[in-house]
Design goal:
Low-confidence stretches: none
Protein name: DUF1127 domain-containing protein
Number of strands: 0
Pfam families: YjiS-like
InterPro entries: YjiS-like
Number of helices: 3
Structural class: mainly alpha
Distance between the termini: 21 Å
Helix content: 40-55%
Strand content: under 5%
Mean pLDDT: 85
Radius of gyration: 15 Å
Length: about 60
Amino acid sequence: MALIDTPRAHAHPRPDFGLLSRMVEAVISWNDRRATRKALAQLSDRELDDIGLSRGDIDRVARRF
């Protein structure tokens, strides 16, 4: 089983650019959820069971990101 880690550097506060900042954050969040769903969907049913998930849990888990 492979580990997929996509760390985000948040060492410095980002300047607030209003609507543009919120749009960028929305795209980043959407992409994180998409990548999570894709990674979990590629696991076998047995691998999902090993981590305590089922296919029906994938969307719920992805929404946490």
